[in-house]
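Hi Y.,

Following your request, here is the sequence exactly as I used it, all 184 residues.
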Amino acid sequence: MDKKSAHAAKIETSRVVFSGRIFNVAVDRVRLPHSVTVDMEVVRHPASVILLPIDSDGRLILVRQYRYAVDRWLWELPAGSVDPGETPEAAAVRECAEEIRLKPGALDLLGSFYPSPGYCDELMIFFRLMDLRGLGPDDEEAQVDADEDLEVRHFPLDEIHTLIERGEIRDMKTIVGLRYCKVP
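Below is the corresponding structure, written out as tokens. Let me know if you'd prefer a different format.
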């Protein structure tokens, strides 16, 4: 272990200044590892799962949805938050059913990233989902979020890279996730 990883910040006080449906914002009074005390604003966001669903023809399934914050319709990898008490694997299966109405027969953990660690603690966990099948009568009912109006489309990988080059895919988690996009 290197010198810098041996020390952690010490939280002296913490207060939630905003509590929302998806995340909370806290202001923490923190003594940093180098002994400076500062107030830090932190977005507290549950972990999320980012899905790379690959169909039987080797195409990647994306969803197009309206994103209010940027006032645009965007093509993205299906994704969603991990619910309290839920494993990332269970969240990946649930989100697959909710967003693209399919259930994976196999899923592979690909890696994880912090998208904005300067102010947010969200961990994005990437999974490749394969052996996809339609939902059956024994599958749990998929619940679509009220703010989601999704268009689902299967893309050949070369077409996705063209969409990125043309600026038609602008979602960073999707672009980062594509580094994993290899059909085994």
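The helical segments are 88-100, 157-165, 172-177.

Thanks again,
Q.
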